[in-house]
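Input set for joint prediction.
Command: fold jointly, output C-alpha cells.
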Amino acid sequence: MTALVAVQYRGLAGALGADSLAALAENPAIRTLFGPPVGLDTAGGFTVWRTGTVLAVLVGIWAASTATRLTRGDEEAGRWDLLLAGRLRLPSLVARVLVVLLGASAVVGAAGGLGLVVAGAPVSGSVLFTACLAGTGMVGSALGVLCAQLFADRRSASGVAVAVLLAGLLARMVSDGVPALAWLAWFTPFGLLGRAAPFAEDRWLPLLVLAVLVTAVAVLAVALATGRDVGHGRLAGRDRRTAPSRLLTSLPGLAVHRTGRPLAGWATGAMAYFLLIGLLATTMTEFLRDNPAFADLAAQAGFAQLVSVEGYVSALYTLLAVVIGAFTASRVAATAADETAGRLALLYSRPVSRARWAATEAAAVTLAAVGLAAATGLAAWAGTAWVDAGLGLGDAVTGALSVLPVALLCLGAALAALGWAPAAVLAIGVLPAVGGYLLIVFADTFGWPRAVRWFSPFAHLNDVPAEPWNVAGGIGMLAVAVALATAGCLGYARRDLAG
Amino acid sequence: MATSTTSVPALRMERLGKRFGTTDAVVDLSLIVPAGEVFGFLGPNGAGKSTTIRMLLGLLLPTSGAAWVFDAPAGDVERAHEMLAYVPADVALWPALTGRECLSLLAGVGPGIDAAYRDELLERFALDPDRKARTYSTGNRQKVALVAAFSTRAPLLVLDEPTSGLDPLMEREFRACIAEAAARGQTVFLSSHQLAEVEAVCSRVGILRSGRLVEVAGMADLRRLHRSEVIVELAAPEPGLRGLADLPGVADVRWPSPLRLELSLTGPPGTVLRALGGADVAHLEVREPSLEEIFLDYYGQVPA
Ligand SMILES: Nc1ncnc2c1ncn2[C@@H]1O[C@H](COP(=O)(O)OP(=O)(O)O)[C@@H](O)[C@H]1O
Ligand SMILES: [Mg+2]
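C-alpha cells >
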C-alpha cells in the first residue's frame, strides 16, 4: 500500500504549489485528522502523511490483539497450565512470549516501510518511518501483554488494549489541533510518528522516546506477571453478584445482555471521534473553500462535496460504515468463539435451535448497529453545533444511518461464515466494509472499469446528507445481506457444533 | 410427566455412526433404552461416548444411521429437547455470569423447572450461586449443570461423565439424586468410566470400545466380568497351596517368593478362602481391578 501511494504521488506532484502546501500545513483541521503535513513535496513525505496514521493504527491493533490472544487467550484456555507445570515460571513465560511478539510486530511494521524503499524513496526517511511503524507495533504488543496481566479474560484484555491505542490516536489528534496540548504527542506512538517527520526533518529523538515507551510498557507487563496466579488477572473485578440480571431469563434477553457492553464500548469510541470531526467542520470546509487546489484534488478522489459541511460529514461517514461493519462482524465472531470454547453446548441442550439463536442474536446486533449509527450521528451533530457549522440534527443522524446497509452486509457475511467457515467469521465479516473500501479506493485511483467498482458496497452508497439516499442500492444491499444471513443460518443448523 | 411416553423407548439409536476425517469415532451403534431405566454407558477414554451423546443431542450430525428421543428425531431439537436435560463432559459457562444467572437462563429457555427442587439442590450440592462462573472450579461448573439438569424434571437425563470433577461427598449426593430421579420414573443415560459409580446406580450397562458397542448387559452379568487380584502373604511356607491353580475361577497363579502368593480370581471368592483356611495367612489383600483392567481382560477374550 505504501508503494502504491508513493507511485500515485508522482501523478499529483506539481499539481500543488508551495503556497497551497503551506496553507495545508497550517490548517488545524488537516493537522488534526491526518497529522502534520510535512515533507509533502517528496513522494515519501506524501506517502507517510496519507498512509502513516492508518498503517500505524492497523499495525498497532493487530499487534495488541495478537498479543492478548497468545497470552491471555492461551492462559484462559488452560494451555499454559501444562507449560507452567515444569520449571518455567509465569514471569519468564510472559517475558519470552513478549520477546517473540515484539520481534513479530517489528517485522510486520517493517514490511509496511519496505514498500517505500521499493518505490525509490530516500533511505534515511524510509528507515525512520519503518522504525516508527515497527515501534508502534511493539507498543501494541507490549500493551496487549500488559492488559493480559490485568484482566482474566481475553476479550476484556484485547478490548482495553485496543481502546488505549485508539485513545493514543485521539491524543495525537488533540495534540495537533490544540497548540496548548501539543506535548501530548510525546506520549503516543502516533504522535511520535508525526514528531519524527520522516522525509522532512528526519528527527531521531522521537524514535528514542518510542523505544523508552516500548521498554516501559514491556517492563511493567512482566512486573505485573510476577506474583500473580495463573488463570487470574490483577484486576479481578467483583466475584460475586447477588442481584441477577433480569434479562437473563429468555433468548432475546440473553442476546440483549451480551450485546450491551460491547455496544457501549464501540459507541464511546465512535462518538468521541465523530464529535471531534464535528468540531473541525468549519475549519475544514473554510480551508477547502479558500484553497480551490485542494478542493479540486478532493473532487478527483471522489469527495466532490467537501466544501459544504454536509459533504464533509458525509465523506467521513464512509469511515463509520467500516466501524459499524466491524462491530457487527465482531459480535458474530463472539458467538463463534463461544462455540469453540464449548459455552453453547448447554444452551443448545435446551429446546433452542441454532437457527433461532443465530436469528435472535442477529436481530439484537442489528438494533445495536442502528443505535451505534444514531449515537454517532448525534455526536457529529453536537460537534458541528458547537462550532455553528449549520448542520441539521436530522441531516447528521440520517447521514449516519445511511451507511447501515454496508454494516448489515457485514453482519450477513459474518453469519454466512458462521454457517460455512466458522474459523474465519471475523475476516469474512469485515470483508464487505474493509475490502469494499479498498476496492473503491483502488478503482478510483487507477481508473478501473465500472464493472469492478460495482462490486464495492460503497459504490451503492450516496453521500447522505449531501445527496439523497440511494434507495435502490440500499435495498439491493439489504437483500444480499438477508440472503447471506439465511444461507448462514441454514448452514449453521446443518453442521457439527465444535467444542 | 413421563407417564404418557412410557410405551415409547426414551432413546433409540439405529446403526448410528460418526466419522471424523479418517477416524471412526462411533460405528454402527444400535441401542434401545426403555423409559424409566438407568442406563450406564461405559468405555475407556476415546471410546466414543461423548461423540454418541453429542449425536443424541443434535450437536453432531451422524454420518450414518439415526437416533430418536422418545419419538422425536434427535435433529429436531425444539421437540426432542423439551423432554431431556444434559450435562456435558466439560461444562463451560460464560465467565461473567453468576451461577444463578446461568441457571435462570437455562430454565427460562426451556419448558420450565421445579424451582423449589432447584433451591434444595443448590443446598445439597453446597454451591454458592452468586459467584461469577469464572471463579468456579471444574467441579463447581459441573454442579451448575447438574442442578440445571435435575431441576428440569425432564423425562430423560443425558449425563456425560458428570462426576469427573466432584469430590466423594458430592458424588454421594449425585447418586442420591439419580436414585430420586429413577424413583420418579425419569430415564437416565449415564456415560462413565468409573465402574463403582455405574455399579451403584445403573440397572443395565452398555460397553463401548473403539466406537463399537461390544456388550449390553444387566448389572449382574457385568459382575461376571469382574476379575480381582488376590495377594496372600504367609507366615510359613505351605506346599499344599500349590493346588490352588486348579480351582474354578483362578488364573495367573504366581509365587514371587515361597511366602507370597498372587492370583487372579473371577467369580465368588469362597473356594479360594476355603483353600487358604488351613494355611498360616499373615496378610490377605483382595484388590478390585480398575475398569480398564476389566476391559483389557474382557477384550483379551473377545478380539474385536
Ligand atoms: N471433533 C473431533 N474431530 C476429530 N476427532 C474427534 C472429534 N471428537 C472426537 N474425536 C475422536 O473420536 C474418538 C471418540 O472420542 P469421544 O467420543 O470424545 O470419546 P469418549 O467420550 O468416550 O472419551 C476419539 O478417538 C477422539 O479422538
Ligand atoms: Mg468423553
